Amino acid sequence: MQPEGVIPQSQPYAGSPQLGAGVDIKVKNQGVLFGTQTVVNGSYSSGSVPLNLYNNYVRWVWVYVQYLGANNENLSANTNPTWPDSKYSQSLGLMAPVFTILGIPVPNTNTIDVTLNFPPGAHTARILFCGLGSDINGGGWRQYFPADAYPDRIAPTDEVLFPSLTTGILTIGLTAFALAADFDIGAAWASINGPIAHNPFATQAALQAFLKTGASVLTGVEGVGLTVAAGTASYADIKGGNASNIWSSLLALGSVIPKVIFGPNSEQFWTDVALTIIGDETGAKIANAIPYIGELIAVIEALGDAATLAEVCAETIMSPWVIENEVTLTYPATITINHDPADSTFPKTATSWRLEAKVDGAVTLDPITGPINTGGKIQSDPLVVSVTAPFGGSQIQWSVVFSDSDGHQVGTGVSAQYTNNDPANPPSAVAITIQEILLPITASTVFKRADTTGYATAGYTWSNQITDTGTVLSKGIQQVTGTTVSTLAGVAGLVWEQGDRFYVRGVPVAQNSATLKLAAATNEGYARPPFLLFDAFVKPTDQGNHVLLEPDPTTPAYHVRKVTLDPSTGAPSWDPTVSYGTFLLPVSAAALHSSGRVVAIHTDSGRFGWLKPVATPLPVVAAYSAGHGTQVGLLSSPIALAVTNPGVVLVLEAGASQLAAFDLNGNPVPYFGVSGQGQYTLPLVSKGTYLDLAVDGAGQVYALYYTGDGAAPADYHVDVYTQAGAVLDTQSPGVNVPHLAIDYWRSIYAANYDPLADIASGAPHIDPALTVAEPSLSRFDPTDVSAREPARR
User: Fold this and answer.
1) What are the beta bridge partners of residue 717?
2) What angle do the packed helices 253-261 and 268-278 form, to 10 degrees?
3) How far apart are the C-alpha atoms of 747 and 782, rounded to whole Å?
4) What is the pLDDT at residue 457?
5) Which of 185, 259, 465, 695 is 20 to 30 A removed from 550 (C-alpha atoms)?
6) Using CA atoms, how far apart are residues 404 and 781, in angstroms rounded to an integer?
7) Model pTM?
């Protein structure tokens, strides 16, 4: 349970808790805490928890409890309490100082047994050990009380009054007085401690009476010392307003003792204390010592009682007024976290996760944190976290947040609400499905190479430690002709030329083990480039609309083949004997719409073709429009195309350095610009050699190009336009690839100019199933660089 004003401290995930089934009892601080210790002394039964409490310091402590419910509500609050309860806490018991020998505490000799009785709706018992202290340690007592409780006081008066005064007047004051009067305090304590512990009501009455009637006989210094010991002093009462150094005020309590116990109007309790002292010492001896008390306190160097005084002095200064501990009822639970159904993996940019639980709306345990996508291996398998869950209250709900390396949230999720107060059926199995957060593209967005494929000793792998500096001038791969990606299937595809032959490869974008297993496609080694096109929103186990435009071996035609993706290796497969349609003209670039419609262009002729694959005895033949030219509806050296979700085909015209818009039937459409003022084409703002085109789920347009001769990686850029054609981002250099594909979450997938290499040696890896080098595959993630820049003064 997090007290008000305290920031939860995350706990790194350490694996499965070693707990049995059912409800267990958890103590937040199980060790010694400022001399106190809380030990479970039995098992949970019908809301009751037995405890054994220890006090190993030489000071009196009154133990209270606050039962906490929904939204941190203090269920123990009572506007009309009966002492020793307070308005804010219920009494558990009084603890005397630990037994000492020559001022040396004998640990674990002072305990009391108590029973916590959790009321309905309570999920946490906050235990408060209250006594004389300071604010040097402990974070302050106000975090456990309402903001208007005990205004301007240095301590929670009702909770600390009795134990603080008892420590101040009797433990500190009487010990100091004994040193000055030279009587045996040890013998006196044997007679005094018993009545205090067994009849605190009489002691309380005596303390209250002296506070009301005895203050008139005290000096100013003695009065401040008394109010400090009682916790009734305000910050203004203490010189300098510094409540963290109160020992100088408490020194005066030695001279208060004779006025308390030998005053003419003393309560019977104080008379009994005086008779105990005088029983062994003469009154004259004590009276003669009174004038020297202050002086003797300042030069105490003896053992025995002096050591006791030093012990309680040090412990009082170091201990907070309120020492807090918590007891919660717990049970083992398994939290299973699943990725967004609109993605095949957890967020690609995520590097960490944070899991929290709320009982009736209140955070009840420190957040649990852990890493994800370690080393660039993007996880798709469910994240399974074994936790110790808090029991109690009415309902529990779990939430999880995924963050990137800069701390930005990239995914969140919450569970259903579960009944949390049935000990026979605690909610030990919880499921959460997250929702990814789509990063907006702005003028400060830069696409950074995040992961690249390589080959390790045991197989293929994704890694964030691989760099790639390949350009159009590189000679490692003869030519890359295309890249595609399916967001839901979790597979990226690439087509390349090596040794004057063309090859096809599918690569899973997720990696849940040390390595990836890749496999060859149905056919390899084409004389002309095939075109691999993935449906973005088809799950791995579905047939979907994936297609391959396979070149006919004897004519310029291309046959449309239905493609199936292996859910493990990502390998594409198809039946080469079945054609679902034919493009009779040569194809320079192609694209796939989610409806299944395939569109293609031919650069030299400027022709635009389309068809809908259908299984018929005679394959359907593509229809064509457009042609070479600069008028609306004609194309000037088209080299790439992409299709928006609504079905608008955008064509990249290298000859005119512009985009042209068509519908799925090859008709030009006034797509660009504001509504009612649409333009058929959009001039590209950057000068350079354009390479490829892609669109995301929101219709934003990504144009890939290089400047100069493309010899340096920094020459390669991606410009992003809005759906209407306004410029969003022109500040993303370093995307040194020949083609690109965009997934739904705006990550770029692209085959590189350089071959996939052995990570250890750097030499190109040759798959025996291919017998040629293959390009490595990289993923570029959008990053907001403005969030990383330091603030400027």
Assistant:
1) 705, 733
2) 100
3) 6
4) 86
5) 695
6) 11
7) 0.73
